[in-house]
Amino acid sequence: MDSNTNLIILILLIPLIATFGIYAFSSKPNLRESISLAAGVSVLILAWSIFEKIKANQLVEWHLIEVLPGISIHFKVDELGALFSLIAGFLWIITTLYAIGYMRGHHEKNQTRFYICFSIAISAVLGVAYSGNLFTLFVFYEVLTLSTYPLVTHAGTEKAKHGGRVYLGILLFTSIFLFLPAIIITFLTADTLTFTPGGVFNKDASSILLSCLLILFIFGIGKAAIMPIHRWLPAAMVAPTPVSALLHAVAVVKAGVFSIIKVCVFIFGADALSGLITTQFLIYLTGTTILLSSLIAMRQDNLKKRLAYSTISQLSYVILGALLITSTSVTGSTLHILMHAFGKITLFFCAGAILVASHKSEISEMRGLGWKMPVTMTAFFIASLSIIGLPPVGGTWSKWYLLMATVETEQLILMSTLMISSLLNIYYLLPIPIKAFLPAKSTSQTNGYKSRFEIKEAPVASLIAIVVTTLCCLLLFVFPQPFVEMAQRIL
């Protein structure tokens, strides 16, 4: 094995090895969490090394085992996977740091189980990122589903168990009955599952078969949460905030839209995809998802639910770019994975900080909160600008590329959809920090009774995580070029 192969082996094994250390020091929280942070730092260093090697056009590949003739566990890193793993590695560290403050401040039980499942989930994400074929991607995609189920049901309440059943039921159903058949049909039709630039299908492949196959893939990759395969995402909001951050920014939904980009670009290819009769239908469905989920978000008073429906909308931005499949649109989709990751994780970090510090989860209760939690609410404001796509934050660039892609492809209805969606983003996000900095109706009463504690900022560890991700939202506006250049090489 060469050194590049060893990099893949190490980066996949480190999170798994960390689980043993986390378990061994379950009774010593400081050591337990130090192991998780150390593993995160190690993964980030390796992910950055792999990113640099792909940038330099080096081959980073590992054939693990051939399961059946033509079907193997095979890892091969491309530009999209290198960027995705870099996001996951960095945000693992930040989410762990945030979780230390949140889990202790909220006196959560089963913290060791949380960190163990989190580590396994990160290993699964890296497996998805580096997958060289559809079979490998499917295996790690399913490991990700199973490893995050205990996190969704972490609280152990009936509500949490119900949310977990919805989460697991929808994701397993779509995988087994839609995604897996699509993979089998692809293998029988193309005689390969390897991700190939330009696609794997011959020019004489049936357009009707490929059209049906595309529908199976888009709905089968349930983690992308396109309507109507989206109910699992709001249901999973019963989980603790660090889990919500994992679901929305680090792992689950990003694995979904990442998989869709891989399928569109490396299984279908631009020529095949643009000629299918179902492509335009799915493009309009993503537009519908963008608008409807934004409208639903506007009606949610619970902060985490509003953010959940916002995520559903933003994921369809990525799917839209993948289906338009031009250089500009794929660049926009890839950048949106990055920009949305930092913007949305900041918003969820802020939501959790508000819950820990003030015990408030409803937006209608947050008036005046900004004066007691200025750092948190300022961070919420900056991250909101990134989700909306306004300067001076990173989300500006991804939305700009996606908007330009609709102009290039003459999809004027979709161009209008993206513009209307950004206006709706303003309507359901910006009033939250603005209201927080308005004078409180009462400084001594909370829901009719005297407050028993003084509201202040979240624990220091959580606050550091919030500040770091907020600064990243700003830095990605000023220094987007390395990521833009990598994204432009994908198609």
TrEMBL record:
<feature type="transmembrane region" description="Helical">
    <location>
        <begin position="411"/>
        <end position="430"/>
    </location>
</feature>
<dbReference type="InterPro" id="IPR001750">
    <property type="entry name" value="ND/Mrp_TM"/>
</dbReference>
<comment type="similarity">
    <text>Belongs to the CPA3 antiporters (TC 2.A.63) subunit D family.</text>
</comment>
<feature type="transmembrane region" description="Helical">
    <location>
        <begin position="246"/>
        <end position="269"/>
    </location>
</feature>
<feature type="transmembrane region" description="Helical">
    <location>
        <begin position="114"/>
        <end position="132"/>
    </location>
</feature>
<dbReference type="Pfam" id="PF00662">
    <property type="entry name" value="Proton_antipo_N"/>
</dbReference>
<feature type="transmembrane region" description="Helical">
    <location>
        <begin position="460"/>
        <end position="479"/>
    </location>
</feature>
<dbReference type="InterPro" id="IPR001516">
    <property type="entry name" value="Proton_antipo_N"/>
</dbReference>
<dbReference type="InterPro" id="IPR050586">
    <property type="entry name" value="CPA3_Na-H_Antiporter_D"/>
</dbReference>
<feature type="domain" description="NADH-Ubiquinone oxidoreductase (complex I) chain 5 N-terminal">
    <location>
        <begin position="71"/>
        <end position="115"/>
    </location>
</feature>
<feature type="transmembrane region" description="Helical">
    <location>
        <begin position="337"/>
        <end position="357"/>
    </location>
</feature>
<feature type="transmembrane region" description="Helical">
    <location>
        <begin position="369"/>
        <end position="391"/>
    </location>
</feature>
<dbReference type="GO" id="GO:0005886">
    <property type="term" value="C:plasma membrane"/>
</dbReference>
<feature type="transmembrane region" description="Helical">
    <location>
        <begin position="82"/>
        <end position="102"/>
    </location>
</feature>
<feature type="transmembrane region" description="Helical">
    <location>
        <begin position="138"/>
        <end position="155"/>
    </location>
</feature>
<feature type="domain" description="NADH:quinone oxidoreductase/Mrp antiporter transmembrane">
    <location>
        <begin position="131"/>
        <end position="424"/>
    </location>
</feature>
<feature type="transmembrane region" description="Helical">
    <location>
        <begin position="281"/>
        <end position="298"/>
    </location>
</feature>
<protein>
    <submittedName>
        <fullName>Proton-conducting transporter membrane subunit</fullName>
    </submittedName>
</protein>
<feature type="transmembrane region" description="Helical">
    <location>
        <begin position="34"/>
        <end position="51"/>
    </location>
</feature>
<keyword id="KW-1003">Cell membrane</keyword>
<dbReference type="Pfam" id="PF00361">
    <property type="entry name" value="Proton_antipo_M"/>
</dbReference>
<feature type="transmembrane region" description="Helical">
    <location>
        <begin position="6"/>
        <end position="25"/>
    </location>
</feature>
<feature type="transmembrane region" description="Helical">
    <location>
        <begin position="208"/>
        <end position="226"/>
    </location>
</feature>
<feature type="transmembrane region" description="Helical">
    <location>
        <begin position="307"/>
        <end position="325"/>
    </location>
</feature>
<keyword id="KW-0472">Membrane</keyword>
<feature type="transmembrane region" description="Helical">
    <location>
        <begin position="167"/>
        <end position="188"/>
    </location>
</feature>
<keyword id="KW-1133">Transmembrane helix</keyword>
<keyword id="KW-0812">Transmembrane</keyword>
